[in-house]
Automatic annotation (TrEMBL):
NCBIfam families xrefs: RnaseHI_Halo
One term of GO molecular function: RNA-DNA hybrid ribonuclease activity
EC number: 3.1.26.4
Pfam families, alphabetized: RVT_3
Stated name of the protein: Ribonuclease HI
Class of this enzyme: hydrolase
Organism: Halodesulfurarchaeum formicicum
KW Hydrolase (keyword) present: yes
Keywords, in A-Z order: Hydrolase
Length: 198
């Protein structure tokens, strides 16, 4: 549950501009409540507490300054192929870890889970407003398909690749690189933790 130190008046305005639903506080200590996407926020005198399934829907609005470069690590996990699956991602910029997360996605193949992880990471990076994105993943198949070096014969994976390129169009520059599993360990851990806790 993220707690962001910020001015509640400025936070309310940024959330309103982003399309959040704003409602009055429910106690003397609460300034307002806000709902945006799958996140809920409660503002106090000098902080905002964010809750919900996807806190990034609000934290990106309040913390994202727009611009700059971000490094993205993604990984999908699958128990059986197909089987119960989850995604993990980590966003790192010059200040450190900006956002990380893991969530289950239902039944999928390993390659579908990898694509889902990449898509989720790109969506979060876009919410923060970065201009440049450097993507790292340990799935050689996904990296090479996104680059266009390998064909995508499976119709489902082809749809995923199209969605990835739609999201990449939101950035001024991007690169995608295959890395060893140990370089991608945190994203892998987040995906597996999501499955363990399902």
């Amino acid at each position: 549950m993220p707690v962001l130190e910020c001015d509640p008046t400025e936070a309310r305005e940024r959330l309103r501009e982003a399309g959040a639903t704003i409602s009055p506080g429910k106690t003397d200590h609460e300034v307002f409540h806000a709902d945006l996407g799958e996140a809920h926020a409660v503002a106090y005198e000098d902080s905002v507490v964010v809750q919900g399934k996807r806190p990034v829907d609000i934290t990106a609005v309040l913390e994202g300054d727009g611009g700059g470069r971000v490094h993205v690590y993604f990984d999908g996990a699958c128990r059986g192929n197909p089987g119960p699956s989850a995604v993990g991602f980590v966003l790192v910029d010059e200040h450190g870890i900006v956002e990380e997360g893991g969530e289950t996605i239902g039944r999928a193949t390993n390659n579908q889970a990898e694509y889902e992880a990449l898509i989720r990471a790109l969506e979060v990076a876009a919410q923060y407003g970065y201009d440049e994105i450097e993507i790292r993943g340990d799935s050689e198949l996904i990296v090479k398909q996104v680059r266009g070096a390998w064909q995508t014969n499976d119709p489902t994976l082809r749809e995923y690749r199209v969605r990835v390129h739609e999201l990449l169009d939101e950035f001024e520059e991007y690169s995608i690189t295959h890395v060893p599993r140990e370089t991608n360990e945190r994203a892998d851990d987040l995906a597996n933790e999501a499955l363990d806790n399902a």
